[in-house]
Amino acid sequence: MQNTATPTHCPYCALQCGMNLTPTPDGTVEVSERADFPVNRGALCGKGRTAPAVLARNVRLTSPLVRDEGGTLVPASWDEALDRIAAGLGRTRAAHGPDAVGVFGGGGLTNEKAYTLGKFARVVLGTSQIDYNGRFCMSSAAAAGIKAFGLDRGLPFPLEDIPKSGCVILVGSNLAETMPPSLRFFTELKENGGTLIVIDPRRTRTAEQADLHLAPRPGTDLALALGLLHLVIAEGRVDEEYVAERTAGWEDARAAAMAHWPEYVERITGVSVPELRETVRLFCAPESAMVLTARGPEQQSKGTDTVGAWINLCLATGRAGRPLSGYGCLTGQGNGQGGREHGQKADQLPGYRKLDDPAARAHVAEVWGVDPDSLPGPGRSAYELLDALGTDIRSLLLMASNPVVSAPRAAHVEERIRSLDFLAVCDVVLSETAALADVVLPVTQWAEETGTTTSLEGRVLLRRRAITPPDGVRSDLEVLHELAARLGVEKGFPTDPEEVFEELRRASAGGPADYSGITYRRLAEENGVFWPCPAVAEPVEDGEDALLDAPLPDDPARQAASGHPGTPRLFLDRFATPDGRARFVPVSHRAIAEEPDDEYPVLLTTGRVVAQYQSGAQTRRVAELNAAAPGPFVEIHPRLAARLGAAEGDPVAVVSRRGRAVAPARITGAIRPDTVFMPFHWPGEGRANTLTNPALDPTSRMPEFKACAVRLETVER
Ligand SMILES: Nc1nc2c(c(=O)[nH]1)N[C@H]1C(S)=C(S)[C@@H](COP(=O)(O)OP(=O)(O)OC[C@H]3O[C@@H](n4cnc5c(=O)[nH]c(N)nc54)[C@H](O)[C@@H]3O)O[C@H]1N2
Ligand SMILES: Nc1nc2c(c(=O)[nH]1)N[C@H]1C(S)=C(S)[C@@H](COP(=O)(O)OP(=O)(O)OC[C@H]3O[C@@H](n4cnc5c(=O)[nH]c(N)nc54)[C@H](O)[C@@H]3O)O[C@H]1N2
Ligand code: SF4
Ligand SMILES: [Mo]
């Protein structure tokens, strides 16, 4: 059976590598190279290459499961399972009101699913209590980007700009492991004579590629960025003309930076003054330069201010909104970008509109055919929502996240989940969280359904169905359609992704993330379109002038033919603020929420390894990946290990105020002696999130995954 290959994209990370899928006799697919997608040009990491393994029937769910009277999950019919969910959610709503029903989504959901989930929460359930795992991901960068630029799109330029820039500072990104095919953009940068600076407390595979590696103490990136800005000012490297023409708020930001003397910053960060000076020299010498952040500086209780400080550095040196220069955030999940634009976030409506903006409410309510006053207001953020389970929130519908493994202070979150009156989970596998549910619905996977995702570049992409799903599974859209009907809403929840996308276009029209000029046909023909891409009635000649607020033409062919070209590069003429100027944010350093002390003298930071993805729900089911990364570990510097009396492979207990985790020691000089590192991909004894601190950033509500105080103990085995 040699069917033609279907061009599509990887189910996992935000790079959204292109791949071709060919059906195989066993009902799964074979992955082959798809060279026409410019981001990865055929290259894939091990996770993408092995993704078909999760399509196999022996690892995935193929029947709904319901909890029987004895408390065991047993197979059930779709009707029974859906009836039980409608009854469970409906009971809570009747007894405790709509806000007692919670919804938790994920950045892995396609735009169509994320949009429908947000609409389902607000229109069908009438609850304000919806948020998603993206809160744990890039929310600090998003908040800082909106403050400074008036708009949040992960990268404001395509990845292909990176090799042509003069210098790139990568702050807390280990992309050699988290987005391996993207490493080529950085090696090309170096081949072209550009400089790569990596800032990470560990000498990672990414740091090994750098011309300069700074290894600050975790949680001190804010001080580091302020120290660099101090030197920029002191050395007369401020681009005064740019600051005057394109920014606002410089004086306050300048004054704040001046208080951060290099020697003071050295004491806080552990990065020496000569290293700071060298960084400034390398960053300022070339004509263009970029700062890219990932989870290192963002997953902190001051992540928003920290990213703000890096943006300030870009603005002061004229390195934003200019060719080959700018600040960008490396978004993480497959649809981490689109997932934050279309309404599954607590405070948000489709098109990146604000839920508390009356005009936005009116626009979206009209598209949805409901009264604007019927839309609830903003709800709790992800951790706060999870923390309220079993008390204010009594029932939960969870789609595409596994918080038992991935949420901070996970033992507490697990206990909160167990205390719910009712939990329904839609997943492709029986994740650790699904295993606690009253009803589990098995859903279709990436190769079995069509939908769009928006990559870290802000490029909207079409994922195509390549095979028929097995009997017994349904798509998330079908689930929401069926539940809506059972809860009394017959219309407005289509199951055809393209029909949903057509509605999303209208809902997003005129919003910051405007998709109204994008059609499935364009996505197929153009290999993706960068938003904003408004619908236009006339062919566009030079950019924004021809944009109209006119309703979309009815004929999709005309829409496609008259399309806006999309926006690969943002801010070149103006920023997305009312006056077009970027805003400096005055920020000052502050400590992490939990500094080490006598009882908990060591810092713990957490992150990823190349062969596992997130909570591991999918990748821990793939033999090849498990062979490469079989379990958790604790990275410890040789000096710290010697003090502890631990040898390579010895089980080590890591104890924080939240709990205790045990994993084998991995002794390496690649980490700071005051810090240990654990990957968070595993449940059970070695679960890193048993330890992490849910201290939240006041703006983004991001938990402090990247720094908390722990002590180490040896374990007798
Ligand atoms: N293999 C794999 N790839 C993935 C994922 C996965 O789970 N596995 N997940 C995807 C998702 S959703 C995301 S969000 C991305 C994340 O991608 P990354 O942000 O690259 O991943 P992390 O490993 O969480 O963190 C990056 C680095 O931050 C460093 N770090 C820790 N604390 C600090 C600090 O205080 N300051 C600084 N500057 N650095 C610090 C860590 O040592 C680590 O090397 O990866 C995506 N790709
Ligand atoms: N300590 C620590 N904790 C962290 C982080 C860290 O750096 N350190 N990083 C945080 C970050 S950045 C993130 S993004 C989170 C991620 O953590 P999670 O939210 O747990 O992410 P996943 O493990 O990807 O969970 C996705 C689940 O949805 C299922 N799934 C996949 N596709 C679909 C679909 O289309 N529909 C449905 N219904 N289900 C689907 C998968 O099988 C899986 O069970 O973890 C956070 N937790
Ligand atoms: S880098 Fe990301 S998108 Fe590319 S193959 Fe790996 S997991 Fe998939
Ligand atoms: Mo993420």
| Count of distinct strands | 30
Described by strand count, sense and barrel closure, the largest sheet is:
7 strands, mixed
* Rg (CA only): 24 Å
What percentage of residues falls in helices of 4 or more residues? 25-40%
What's the CATH topology label of the largest domain?
A: Rossmann fold
Number of spatially distinct domains: 3
Class of secondary structure makeup: alpha/beta
General shape: globular
Give the amount of beta strand, in percent. Answer: 15-25%
Main-sheet strand order equals: 5-4-18-17-16-6-7
CATH architecture of the largest domain: 3-Layer(aba) Sandwich
Give every kind of bound small molecule, once each: ligand MGD, iron/sulfur cluster, molybdenum atom
Ends: how far apart? 53 Å
Assign the CATH class of the largest domain.
Alpha Beta
Return the average pLDDT rounded to an integer.
Answer: 96
Number of helices: 24
Question: Ranges with pLDDT <50 over ≥5 residues?
Answer: 542-553
